[in-house]
């Protein structure tokens, strides 16, 4: 996923960009509001998420958020040291999709990024009968919840399909175990880790593609898109 990071502190931006890159993000860094708005022109590269720090040197971050929302529907996550409820409500009213208060946990930030991007994908595809994900020989029909490999239907349980669809929407991106449990099973990590491992093993066996879902030791899983 392409991500626009709007942050005036070069040291903070470099550290965060390195973390995001390790989790599969292609990060573009804008140092102020004007650079951010220039990066979001229609003919520019599309972004999956904008991570917007409110403490910018040239413009008020809230003002930048309003301008972003007028020109694109790209999800915006505000990052700020302002923790009061009024500030959060103001940001959400301007069109922000989420709000992260400094200091934040990197795992939480990654989960929020994935959450807003998935909500956008869902909203964009609701009601469509043509939405599908193609990963080499694997074809995933989201509306009908059908999966085929080389044209042959693969029977998956509900949770197996949800797990595959989650990983397939962001090929190459590492999903933390805690995040997968939260999104697919709608519960916390405790006591559910073994269930996740079983479902991953079952998917690998049913799809007959053991290398499709890669285990990232100590972190989680990612889907490795096969060759067409």
Question: Would you spell out the secondary-structure blueprint of this structure?
Answer:
Layout: E1 2-6, H1 10-22, E2 26-30, H2 33-39, E3 49-53, H3 61-71, E4 76-80, H4 85-93, E5 98-101, H5 106-125, E6 132-135, E7 138-141, E8 146-149, E9 152-154, H6 158-168, E10 175-176, H7 177-185, H8 193-207, E11 213-216, E12 220-223
Parallel strand pairs: 1-2, 1-3, 3-4, 4-5
Antiparallel strand pairs: 6-7, 7-8, 8-9, 10-12, 11-12
- Which fold name fills CATH's third level, the topology of the largest domain? Rossmann fold
Proportion of residues in helical segments = 40-55%
User: In angstroms, what is the radius of gyration?
Assistant: 19 Å
CATH superfamily of the largest domain: Response regulator
Query: How many structural units, i.e. domains?
Result: 2
| β-strand number | 12
- On the 0 to 100 scale, the average pLDDT is 84
Strand percentage: 15-25%
Global geometry: elongated
First-residue to last-residue Cα separation: 20 Å
Please work out how many helical segments DSSP would assign. 8
CATH architecture of the largest domain: 3-Layer(aba) Sandwich
Strand order of the largest sheet: 2-1-3-4-5
The level 1 CATH classification of the largest domain is Alpha Beta
Structural class: alpha/beta
Helix/strand order: EHEHEHEHEHEEEEHEHHEE
Identify low-pLDDT runs: 121-130
Sheet bearing the most strands, described? 5 strands, parallel
């Amino acid at each position: 996923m392409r991500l626009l990071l709007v942050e005036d502190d070069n040291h903070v931006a470099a550290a965060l960009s390195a973390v995001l890159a390790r989790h599969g993000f292609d990060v573009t860094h804008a140092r102020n509001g004007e650079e951010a708005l220039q990066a979001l022109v229609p003919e520019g590269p599309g972004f999956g998420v904008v991570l917007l720090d409110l403490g910018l040197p040239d413009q008020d971050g809230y003002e930048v958020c309003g301008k972003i929302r007028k020109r694109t529907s790209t999800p915006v996550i505000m990052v700020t040291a302002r923790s009061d409820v009024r500030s959060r409500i103001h940001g959400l009213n301007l069109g922000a999709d989420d709000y992260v208060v400094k200091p934040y946990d990197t795992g939480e930030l990654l989960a929020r990024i994935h959450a807003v991007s998935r909500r956008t994908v869902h909203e964009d595809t609701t009601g469509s009968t043509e939405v599908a994900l193609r990963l080499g020989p694997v074809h995933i029909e989201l509306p009908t919840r059908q999966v085929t490999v080389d044209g042959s239907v693969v029977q998956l349980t509900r949770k197996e399909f949800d797990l595959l669809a989650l990983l397939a929407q962001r090929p190459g991106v590492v999903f933390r175990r805690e995040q997968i449990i939260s999104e697919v099973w709608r519960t916390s990590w405790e006591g559910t880790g073994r269930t996740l491992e079983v479902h991953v093993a079952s998917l690998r066996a049913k799809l007959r593609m053991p290398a499709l879902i890669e285990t990232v030791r100590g972190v989680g899983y990612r889907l490795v898109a096969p060759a067409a």
